[in-house]
Amino acid sequence: xxxxxxxxxxxxxxxxxxxxxxxSTAAAAAPRSAxxxxxxxxxxxxxxxxLHLALFAAARRCAGGxxxxxxxxxxxxxxHVTASLVWSxxxxxxxxxxVDVFDDAAVAAYVAAxxxxxxxxxxxxxxxxYERLDG
Length: 135
Known about the structure:
Strand order of the largest sheet: 1-2-3
Shape: globular
Radius of gyration: 18 Å
Structural class: alpha/beta
Number of helices: 5
Largest sheet: 3 strands, parallel
Number of strands: 3
């Protein structure tokens, strides 16, 4: 059953239309790349459906929030840059040489626009076997 909001259906519909138009304009203005598209497809791209974003935010709170725990290591990351939306200094480690998101300008712009902190984002990628200490 649909709520009528006190007879304001026309206003509610206009607000919904404006929200869709704003989202469409923002999406059109945002830089695009194959790497950013792949990240968003695989991980829901930090949006409302990205369960990792809530998990990372909870982990940050457990670490003390604020500046505490600002520098993190993410082994086995593949192309999952959501950690950079929560922490400003993330070192990503994965053995897949095809990972291309960490030097992608559109991904950097996406992180800068969607980060949940004030400092500039710092993302480093190390292509290495994170399962073994001897390389």
